[in-house]
Amino acid sequence: MIRVRDLSKRFGPTVAVDQISFDVTRGEVVGFLGPNGAGKTTTIRVLCGYHPATSGTATIAGHDVSTDSLAARRQIGYLPENVPIYPDLRVIEYLRYRASLKGVPARERRAAVARAMAKAGIEEVARKLCGHVSRGYRQRVGLADALVANPPILILDEPTSGLDPNQRRRIKQVVRDLAAEHTILFSSHILTEVEDVSTRILVIHRGRLRADGPPQDLVAHSAARHLRVVAACAVDRLADLLAGVAGLTVARRSPLAPAVGAVEAAVAAGSDPSAEVGERLLRAGIAVHELRLVLPTLEEYFHLMTEGSDRDEERRLADDAVAGGAA
């Protein structure tokens, strides 16, 4: 439904999006994650035809957004972060007006507006002025606007920005309900929301795509995993037993009692040495109190992909500078 290849967007000397590629297939709910200024909104605006790409391609349901923009935009319902609604129109009047702008035939307009209001859960405020509804309802009015022409694809930019916890909860439920009929790409920096509703996430940082996959898979294969072992032996002996296991690096050791030790070891990406560690302890006749692979949270993974990657890059640059000076 959405296909992006080597997409870049520059504003003068500033690179906002740097050669990113991804696909969103029919029926997916994809969370677009990144810190503020990472390039999420710029990417979304290119997809929606607000900005032309500097290079690369983007297609919506087979229509190129640069050469067939009108056809591409007909496939999209877009909810911007700040919903631009007319405060002096009633909600139902505003949606009928928007339906007419989007080319919904007059004979179908009433049903289209009713369907959009039902999906967004705003029937109870249909006769209220847009300027008199709460911010939570304002976001849902914007969502109904995105839905009124019944597009197959929804692109939502920070749909819960500025909402209180109850309002965020309602919007998340609406997104879950919409997933049965629409392909959804939504931007957010609130990780719990993304984890709750997404089948897949994209992580963008400094304009570059850093990760792509189901949240549980990304976390499970992260380099931030560690193995925690608590066993009935001296902590030094336990650390020595673990030291020879491939893919393990002992990071922390602590005695819990005179004859009980605890060790935490970093686990190499893509490996799970739990079985080998268990067999070693069994052969040594050591009773195991705890043996588990600890996965990072999505928040920890996000930090690793953004600030953590920045620090790694800074260290590499510093090492290169030292090496260059020595030469």
Account of the 3D structure:
This protein has 327 residues and is an alpha/beta fold. The protein folds into two domains: 2-218, Rossmann fold, CATH 3.40.50.300; 226-294, Alpha-Beta Plaits, CATH 3.30.70. The chain contains eleven helices and 14 strands. The chain has helices spanning 40-47, 69-74, 91-101, 106-120, 135-147, 165-178, 191-197, 215-220, 235-243, 274-283, 298-326, and strands spanning 2-11, 14-24, 29-33, 55-60, 63-64, 76-79, 153-157, 183-188, 200-205, 208-213, 226-231, 248-257, 260-267, 288-294. A six-stranded mixed beta sheet has the order 6-7-8-3-9-10, sandwiched between helices. β1 and β2 (14-24) form a beta hairpin. α3 (91-101) packs across α4 (106-120) and α4 crosses α5 (135-147). The radius of gyration is 25 Å and the shape is elongated. The N and C termini lie far apart (52 Å).
Write the CATH homologous superfamily of the largest domain. Answer: P-loop containing nucleotide triphosphate hydrolases
* Class by SSE composition: alpha/beta
Q: What is the averaged pLDDT score?
A: 88
What composes the largest sheet? Answer: 6 strands, mixed
Distance between the termini: 52 Å
Helix content class: 25-40%
Q: Return the CATH class of the largest domain.
A: Alpha Beta
Kindly state the number of beta strands: 14
Label the overall shape. elongated
User: What does the radius of gyration come to?
Assistant: 25 Å
